[in-house]
Amino acid sequence: MFTLPDSWVWDFWFADDGERHHLFFLYASRALHEPDARHYRASIGHAVSDDLVHWTRVPDALVRSDAPAWDDLATWTGSVVRHPDGTWFLFYTGATLTPAGNVQRIGYATSSDLMAWRKAPENPVLEADARWYETLADGHWHDEAFRDPWVLPDPDGDGWHMLVTARGRTGPADDRGVVGHAWSPDLRTWELRAPLTEPGRGFGQLEVMQAEVVDGVPVLLFSCLAPDMAAGRAVGTTGGVWVAPAASVLGPFDVAAAQQLTDSSLYSGKLVRRRDGQWVLLAFHHDDPDGGFVGTISDPMPVTVAGGRLVRELAPTDHNRTLPAR
Fold first, then answer.
1. Is 23 left (phi over 0), alpha (psi -120 to 50) or beta?
2. Quick one: which of 13, 56, 60, 176 has the fewest CB in 10 Å?
3. 174 in the Ramachandran plot: left (φ > 0), alpha (ψ -120 to 50) or beta?
4. Span 161-166, mean pLDDT?
5. Where is each Glycosyl hydrolase family 32 N-terminal domain found (predicted)?
6. Cα–Cα distance between 233 and 228 in angstroms, integer?
7. What total number of domains does the chain contain?
8. Residue 110 within a domain
9. Domain range holding 169?
């Protein structure tokens, strides 16, 4: 388990340099006392491991910029990929406060060694476009949700794709969550496109998405808690990590058929492959049995495909909860 004695740790993502696993994570000081305050104090930390269990913390990756800047409130969740020229790209969410509320945009930093990062001068490279995506001007949500970039190469070699936590323009406020989409030829310039899913699938937002092929089966992983779900979907569940069937890593995604992989004791799940080829899930410990926020990252939990569905083995750190039959 990865834990910091003086800070909460939550959303995270990985990079693999061929020798070590790199963990990039959001963290904020426990001196804030109120866990919800962590979001506006988030920095991106960094740790390394040989086995995904024992971690060594190394210098932080990114912090927020000085005001006025597009990321002057906080740096939030992202992903890391490597360009064919060897350059590492860390895509991340930048948050800023406007008179209307919190606005989220996407930018990137680059590194030659995964250790020292430089923000790109052309940031931000993507933001919500009202042609396809809800903005603060719509007045239906507490922020302009456009975050958590998950970047992956095109399966046919045609550039790169980005999946984004975003919201559509139609439907009830609690049921507008969509898989936002952008494309790039080179990781530096990006073209925003229409979302890959439609609103009305049961979720107000699909957080920290990841598209993978596990044992030959494409899946879309995302997280959502009950307060951010459509009323009908939220009945009988606290939410947690979800997995939706997919035809490929670029969809179509059947979000309406998503099933819970965890309850709310675990959140922001990420799939990663160990050196032995076994797929495992890590997630951060979200709430304890009494509902208090925890803020640590779990040990790896093996996952497999059974009956066409991604399933996981329970870890000793789980809170002995039983998932609802959904």
1. beta
2. 56
3. alpha
4. 98
5. 19-219
6. 10
7. 1
8. yes
9. 7-312
